[in-house]
Amino acid sequence: MPKATNVYNQDSIEVLEGLEPVRRRPGMYIGSTGTKGLNHLIYEIVDNSVDEHLAGFCSEVKVTLGKDGSCTVQDNGRGIPVGLHKKGVPAVRVVLTTLHAGGKFGDGAYKTSGGLHGVGSSAVNALSTWMDVEVSQDGFVHHDHYERGVPTEKLDKDHLLPKLRPTRAHGTKISFLPDETIFEKTRFRESDIKSRLHEIAYLNPGLTIYFKDLREDGQEPRECVFHEEGGISKFVKDLNVSSTALHDPIYFKGQSEDIEVECAIQYTDDFHENALGFCNTIYNSEGGTHLTGFKTALTTILNSYARTIGVLKEKDENFSGTDVRTGLTAIVSVKHPDPRFEGQTKTKLDNPDAAKAVSKVTSEQLELFFDRNLDTLKTVLGQAEKAAKIRKSEEKSRQNLLTKKKFSFDSNGKLANCESKDPKECEIFIVEGNSAGGSAKTARDRYYQAILPIRGKILNVEKASMDKILANEEIRTMIYAFGCGFSEGYGNDFDIAKLRYNKIIIATDADIDGCHIDTLVLTLFYRLMPELIYEGHVYIAMPPLYKVIPSRGGSAKEEYLYDDSALISYRKKHKEGSFKLQRYKGLGEMDADQLWETTMNPETRQLKRVSIDDAAMAAETTSMLMGSDVPIRKEFIYKNANLAELDL
Asked: What CATH number has the domain spanning 405-543+584-612?
């Protein structure tokens, strides 16, 4: 037994006071300290303004990204209460400095709310270098200020906030600067924020959201307004803009006990399903009970109609859930008085009564709709019937595929498997071409690293039918290698527990072709095995672009540079002539030692983990960039051409 070096007794017990727990463990409150967590700070403040809108007191929200890296969120709601709290300080200060404090726990101030944990705004305060607050209420602007969660504004003799000026306005204005000692990066990602704000506008047709980005020096501020009178029906149509819709959106709403349910659905000729769940306007990226209730009711009612009108005969088996959701885009939004989420970031709804409410409303409202719209019903059932036939055909093809001669991983010339059988410690590199594959097989640690070379660019699954997808040798090889099956469109046998590798690492050349291969492989994963991405198993290797070789007598040291910005920085610090550059066009140009040191050694390599923060944006972007609608793709390319990195 090793000798204990730490003493554990009564003096070891530490109590974290105030907001210190948030600063010690920020991931517990905002999910991560990366860009996703950084953007989440804005969402927490905006969600409070949306709660004011849901309560009937707010019609406008303004979100501004400042030049100094700060963010300001302003609304015209009632304003956080500024009166003296029983704790002896203004109520607004209690809200912003105390965990689990707010006006959303009782039955009076808010009927429904997205922020029921009472830690949102206080967590933002704790994780900010500074926060500045202005509350317009009772004819005055009341002011407070904080430094890393600690109030610095002096209270007046009555222990209230100072009044800056008279005003006729009402609402709350909160500005904050993320703490660079907490976050890996402190630059907000504009595209993600705009997508989230647009979602909120769809879900709240009476709300107008103004967005402004002031960060680009010397340029006009980027501004846009989000206001969607069409609500979630318009949301569904916009999600399907690059697909062929089979009918107009079906919209319905209803209430079961105290739970309000609102849905919009539309089928397209795509193979993919895109069902998004929201609770109290908060997007639940991992779904939850509301989506479960919707899917169960949809499957039941369509099977019932299929038998009633003779699409399914007595001897036929029912349509599967996958059959009836093939080509479906759906928005399921509930307003719940007491929601329970898995985690502070509210990624999954956990209320059993939400499933019952959504199922009840969906069954009742769809029955009313289909009774009056027989043509639409026949269109939807026709899509399900087509999906069922293809599913059965694909099941036979897949069974034949999987019962063929078993792969010999070490002798088939493709996958060089690792020795370990423990998935937790194993990783597989998907490399481009036999040359890189040969180097990687020599460089790897055979115990836990597997190598799978693929030949050039794989099939674009966004445009292909399942029979062509399964007939593609490179894709079949990956399905075999991963061991967890796939679940897309007509198949549903994916099991993440059977995954053979904890890390799936895409390692391609650092050029345009390599980026294209990355995109094709990621499209495959997103459409056939999305859980690989959602569960954090997919990575992209970052091989270097250059190797610095010191000239004779020069002061430069041998090192690797991973991008052009690193090269520019290096040249500023070293004299020309003191070094030579070796440009790597592909992994195959590296010898085994170089490949191990730069790309495969866990101690020295750089990996980017692939994640999906916004399922709606991911689905829309994948369909736009990889689908068949050329004009929309051209428009995107022209609009974003200035952001492209050219391989010179």
From this structure: 3.40.50.670
Helices and strands per DSSP (H, E), number in the chain: 20, 22
Catalytic residue, from 395, 511, 563, 629: name it.
Answer: 511
The domain made up of 231-399 has a fold known as Ribosomal Protein S5; domain 2 (3.30.230)
Whether 513 is catalytic is yes
Domain ranges of the chain: 20-226, 231-399, 405-543+584-612
Burial label, 643 (beta-carbon count in 10 A; 0-12, 13-18, 19+): exposed
Q: Which of 517-521, 531-535, 545-549, 576-580 has the lowest mean pLDDT?
A: 576-580
Name the active-site residue from 51, 394, 432, 614.
Answer: 432
Choosing from 132, 445, 513, 629, which is the catalytic residue?
A: 513
Confidence of residue 108 (pLDDT cuts 50, 70, 90): very low
Alpha-carbon radius of gyration of the chain: 28
Q: Is the pLDDT of residue 331 over 60?
A: yes
Q: Give 636-647 pLDDT, tens digit per residue.
A: 554 544 444 544
Q: Do domains 20-226 and 231-399 have the same CATH topology?
A: no
pTM of the predicted protein model? 0.69
Of 394, 509, 518, 620, catalytic: 509
For domain 20-226, give the fold: Heat Shock Protein 90 (3.30.565)
In the residue annotation, 192 being an active-site residue is answered as no
Q: Which of 169-179 are b and which e, b meaning 16 or more Cβ less than 10 Å from the residue's Cβ?
A: ebbbbbbbbbb
Residue (of 230, 175, 287, 262) closest to 531 by Cα position: 287
